[in-house]
């Protein structure tokens, strides 16, 4: 019997993918940072039994339609907005993601980004490295406090809750907005559910952690930024497309809000001359929410286990429903 064929769209640790090498012919795109070109991905997918994919791979109708042997797509991410899940399902293709194991790592980064933006850490670090530190002034690089301020979390899923937990350590007042209220979170973390508008108006830090859906696309637009405090800092660790970047840029230069910490962008990688990332009051990161070595390795292993389970006729560990 011929072995199944698995295509892995980016260089991953072979050690973590061991369960796959034991049961299949595994081919891996050899680049760590450059995505597999679309044409090649289509070609590989056409004969693949399984794909291990990244957020940057578009797994759409065209690809799925032509992938006659495809049984499972394991996405190295908790999000799956790059995959046409309902079409995959209609073709009997199972979609898996990597929830839970990245929750704390992503919450650490999100809270760190909030701290870095509020306390102007990247600007201050550059100041030292660029040899600008010649003396000391009482308001030199003064940022704003985080402790005892109000954090407003939009999207109180697992990562949102983990961020809220961190905020309690900073004695923050916690507001949240979510499609569904979560009474447990309210009891455990003292978080208060409010409307989107109330959250915008009352928060010192507005933290976006929603998945990208038709409902959340460009939710942070000029109307939203207008409703925020002039001193507010906007943090985005979900998806770039939940923000209208032109509106965010205008809000930042006009002083409608005071700063932004962004780990995600509409087009990634963002162009180095993009006006948004030139601003002093913006801290920009290259989508590293889950990027600790431990977590990324665990994500690879989970993808491998999910694919192996499906190809062996078993239930995957984490399936997108
Ligand atoms: C990804 C993410 O893991 O999990 C997600 O949804 O956004 C990140 O943690 C990363 O972009 C690799 O695909």
TrEMBL record:
Residues 7-320 form the D-isomer specific 2-hydroxyacid dehydrogenase catalytic domain. Gene3D superfamilies: NAD(P)-binding Rossmann-like Domain. GO terms for molecular function: glyoxylate reductase (NADH) activity. It comes from the Bacteria. Keywords: Oxidoreductase. InterPro entries: D-isomer_2-hydroxyacid_DH (IPR050223), D-isomer_2_OHA_DH_cat_dom (IPR006139), D-isomer_DH_CS (IPR029753), D-isomer_DH_CS1 (IPR029752), D-isomer_DH_NAD-bd (IPR006140), NAD(P)-bd_dom_sf (IPR036291). Pfam families: 2-Hacid_dh (PF00389), 2-Hacid_dh_C (PF02826). Its EC number is 1.1.1.26. The keyword Transferase does not apply. Residues 111-289 form the D-isomer specific 2-hydroxyacid dehydrogenase NAD-binding domain. CDD domains: GDH. The keyword Oxidoreductase applies. PANTHER family: 2-HYDROXYACID DEHYDROGENASE-RELATED, GLYOXYLATE_HYDROXYPYRUVATE REDUCTASE B. Belongs to the D-isomer specific 2-hydroxyacid dehydrogenase family. This is Glyoxylate reductase. It comes from Metabacillus niabensis.
